[in-house]
Design a protein that fits this description.
single chain, 482 residues, mainly alpha, Fumarase C, Chain B, domain 1, Fumarase C, Chain A, domain 2, Ribonucleotide Reductase Protein R1, domain 1, 3 domains, two-stranded antiparallel ribbon, two-stranded parallel ribbon, elongated
Length: 482
Amino acid sequence: MTDNITALQALSPIDGRYASQTEALKDYFSEAALIKYRVRVEIEYFIALSQTGLPEFAQFNRKTAQPVGTGVNNPQSTKCTEQLRAIYENFTIEDAAVVKAIEKRTNHDVKAVEYFIKEKFDSMGLQEYKEFIHFGLTSQDINNTAIPLALKEMCQAVYCSKIEALLEKIDELSAEWADVPMLAHTHGQPAVPTKVGKELAVFSVRIKEQLRQFKAVPFCAKFGGAVGNMNAHFCAYPQVGWNEFAQKFIESLGLTRSYPTTQIEHYDNLAALFDAAKRINTIIIDLCRDMWSYISMEYFNQKVVATEVGSSAMPQKVNPIDFENAEGNAGLANAIFAFLAGKLPVSRLQRDLTDSTVLRNITVPFGHTIVAINSTVKGLGKLILNREKLDSDLNANWAIVSEGIQTVLRRIGYPQPYEALKALTRGKKALCQEDLASFIESLDVSADVKEELLAITPFSYTGITASAVPSAVPSAAASSKE
């Protein structure tokens, strides 16, 4: 293990340039954290094993006043189980270094964890039980339980919290600018008016729906021995219901057990999780590109930080660097998410080793995603609405209300209204309010209709109010019940 690596020496930006932003991930996916999660799974497995009623644990249960045969969901905490859990609860970087030192001898990371725990058992006077550490298991029973457990807890504590902070910022700006009209653009050309707040609400609704789908993906673990059949367990104790035991054990950790399996987890749901995270990142990229474009169009200005430099050569520059940074990091994350989702579910026969090295990198796209989210929130926080430019563009594009005028004329049965407005407006960007007013006055319609048409302006023709925009898209299940 390399000690004292500084940000300036790190090979990866998420451990170097962005280290302060990804610090929280170290509690879940650093080498030390992975070792700690493996120790946790081994300890919890031993405790669960001790509660199965096996005769070899009779003395152990008498010593600890542990009820026999209550299964892995026993809520009672005894002094012995507390001491055992303290091995991982109080796990230190020094403990991790000890495990790594053992690994140098074994050349096997999970076996090193087993030997580490056995040394702890020796010091606790539990020597006679230490062969029940890792009893009947293969390495992937530990890895394919420890890693999804770490991933689940990271997603709950870090990733989802970051997404929700982004949503909070988007919703805040959406509410603040709910009634501000803006010229919309389709195909890069002036279209019809919209509201600034509503356009932000579009991204909020999209992210919320994908986050709902992300949260619905179960975190699955594999627990079943060398090829998934619990062969060793059944061979040693054929009278025990090992499949039920494994099911309860995995559920006690808050995970979902995949069954039947080969030596490894299917990774299908893990792939679904990565695909869901990828979709959220794609929405973030879309948001950042739109914000970048709006800044380029001067619909937004950016807050100036006096000490910052926008360009090494052009002192006037205030660049939209936060949105550019977010786009780059989210794109990189998506490339890795796509690889992980495509690779992990594929393994030769009952198992090859390719998943092992790949699994070590699942934190990398989440690291880049967190940087992307932070940059997006930072960029949104710098936005200053340029109402003058917004109003100017609306005033310069009166042709955009032609849709509304011809639709009202359709309503009253006026002959060929679309064609009449097309002849008046198509390709004529210089069309002004007076031109439209003259056209309306020339129409053979009632005075009431003319008054209605004259009231249509680029500032009023904005459609439904912001309050009518839903906060979230209902799920298919919810829709079917209505």
